[in-house]
Automatic annotation (TrEMBL):
GO CC terms: lysosomal membrane
PANTHER family: CHLORIDE CHANNEL PROTEIN CLC FAMILY MEMBER (PTHR11689), H(+)_CL(-) EXCHANGE TRANSPORTER 7 (PTHR11689:SF136)
Domain of life: Eukaryota
Organism: Aphis craccivora
Record flagged with keyword rRNA-binding: no
Membrane-traversing stretches: none
Full protein name: H(+)/Cl(-) exchange transporter 7-like
GO molecular function, one term: chloride transmembrane transporter activity
Higher taxonomy: Eukaryota, Metazoa, Ecdysozoa, Arthropoda, Hexapoda
Length: 165
């Protein structure tokens, strides 16, 4: 810790990660420690399919993709999930489903209320609420939902070959 701000943080007792990774880990790539069980969801899907995905996975975040067509420019054998359009958190999807936000357009007279519900949900970390089984009415399972208005359309992307330096 060289900087004055890092010293102040240490003196105040706040935990902080060191700026540099340990010396023996410089050659570890993202691919070495990331999960290979990606659960990508299409940007347009039926509410029932979304509920099924949330009830059968433990992922907290989901890449939102446009299609299952591979746009990669590589000859290496790999699994492709489609064209990345954004990213959405489980907590945000829970709010959309719990408050039936899919039943009316996002841009209506309650636009700011809906947006505030979704923004607040990004800070929820209660595991008991996060992974409870979701239920929707049988007639609502066939409703089509577009996730584009709700997702983060500029997610941070890390290449598989990136190192921690």
């Amino acid at each position: 810790m060289n900087g004055i701000y890092e010293m102040q943080i240490k003196l105040s007792g706040v935990p902080i990660l060191i700026s540099e990774p340990p010396p023996l880990t410089s050659d570890i790539t993202t691919e070495d420690f990331m999960s290979d069980t990606v659960c990508a969801i299409p940007h347009i899907l039926m509410v029932g399919k979304l509920v099924d995905i949330l009830n059968t996975t433990k992922h907290n975040g989901f890449p939102v993709v446009a299609s299952k067509v591979c746009y990669c420019r590589t000859t290496i054998e790999h699994k492709c999930y489609g064209l990345l359009k954004g990213f959405i958190l489980r907590s945000q999807l829970n709010v959309i489903l719990e408050h039936n936000l899919y039943l009316s357009p996002l841009h209506d007279e309650n636009y700011y209320t809906k947006l505030e519900l979704i923004r607040k949900s990004t800070f929820i970390c209660d595991d008991t609420l996060l992974f409870q089984k979701l239920k929707v009415k049988e007639d609502e399972r066939s409703i089509v939902i577009d996730l584009r208005p709700y997702m983060n359309s500029a997610p941070y992307i890390v290449r598989l070959v990136s190192t921690n330096r």
